[in-house]
Amino acid sequence: MFYKDERLALFIDGSNLYAAAKALGFDIDYKLLRQEFMRRGKLLRAFYYTALLENDEYSPIRPLVDWLHYNGFTMVTKPAKEYTDSMGRRKVKGNMDIELAVDAMELAPRVDHIVLFSGDGDFRPLVASLQRQGVRVSVVSTIRSQPPMISDDLRRQADNFIELEELKDVIGRPPRETQVQPRSVAYAAD
């Protein structure tokens, strides 16, 4: 469902795509992802949306954010809000839906096809609006996880649903495992 001469834009809901790939047991290689969609059409922009904890000295997502920023992705970030829920658990809130929707609406007149990497049903009205403007919309997520990571309403609204698991061989890499350091063995001298 892609045409070589169409102008493409990618909109990646970072936490949603991460969760879907993790549910399928692989990590995304973003260099390969970008190359794959450059091959499918004229890629104008690749947006990546994520919230960041600002008060942490080290954020595990920071190296990815920096790499994406230096490798052709347009990064859209905002500070995540930390709070304690009624059960006393530390929670982090960092919804980027509004930022993604506004950017997609602004870019709509300049693209032919938008690829949304999210399964969040809140994006169904956005997809419908983009379609009314003449933009084709593909949604990338998965129905093969338990539970499925895409809302049925969003999948039905999209012009094209791309099963993330079917992209695994093209854009995936095996998940990193924590490496166990070998123990040093001390030998007694005779």
TrEMBL record:
Transmembrane regions listed in the UniProt entry: none
Source taxon at top rank: Bacteria
UniProt-listed InterPro entries: LabA, NYN
Recorded GO MF terms: RNA nuclease activity
Annotated ranges, domain NYN: 7-165
Pfam families, per the entry: NYN
Record's protein name: NYN domain-containing protein
UniProt source species: Antarcticimicrobium sediminis
